[in-house]
Amino acid sequence: RHMRTHTGEKPFECPVCNYRAAQNSSLVHHMSSHSGYKPYQCTECSYKTPEEYKLSRHMLTHTGDKPFECSECNYKAALKSSLVHHMSSHTGYKPFKCTECNYKATANSILAVHMRTHTGDKPFECTVCEYKTIQKGHLARHMHTHTDLKAFKCSECNYKAALKSSLNLHMRKHTGNKPYHCPECSYTAAHRSAFTYHMSKHKGT
Question: Which domain of life is it from (predicted)?
Answer without folding.
Answer: Eukaryota
